[in-house]
Amino acid sequence: MAIVKLVLQIVLVVLCFLLTLLILMHRGKGGGLSDMFGGGLTQNAGTSGVAEKNLNRWTIIIALLWVAIIIALSLISKFHLV
């Protein structure tokens, strides 16, 4: 079970970085972090609605996986399975 916990922790770290990148890729609504890191450039480039919808879907999927892994790790710790 220790291997499962280690794998979940590694996946959690990877998902944290991926989720941060996906959030920063969203189109800025004015003056936020996404504009600071180049999000305004995509707004001028005219991103399509389909690309924005797909980005939203991926962000939601990764966020749900992130939450599920956090819950799994807390249950493993609570019931001392490792």
Write the layout of secondary structure elements.
Elements lengths: L1 H24 L7 H4 L2 H7 L3 H30 L4
Helix pairs in contact: 1-4
Fold and architecture overview:
The protein has 82 residues and is mostly helical. 79% of the residues lie in helices and 0% in strands. The chain has one domain (2-78). The chain has helices at 2-25, 33-36, 39-45, 49-78. Helix 1 (2-25) packs antiparallel against helix 4.
TL;DR?
The protein is mainly α. Helix content is 79%, strand content 0%. It has helices at 2-25, 33-36, 39-45, 49-78.
Q: Biggest sheet, in brief?
A: none
Total beta strand runs: 0
Number of spatially distinct domains: 1
Helix-strand pattern: HHHH
Structural class based on helices, strands and sheet pairing = mainly alpha
Low-confidence residue ranges: none
What helical percentage do the residues reach? over 70%
Morphology call: elongated
| Rounded Rg | 17 Å
Q: Termini, distance in Å?
A: 6 Å
Instruction: Give the averaged pLDDT, no decimals.
Output: 83
Strand content: under 5%
- Total of helices: 4
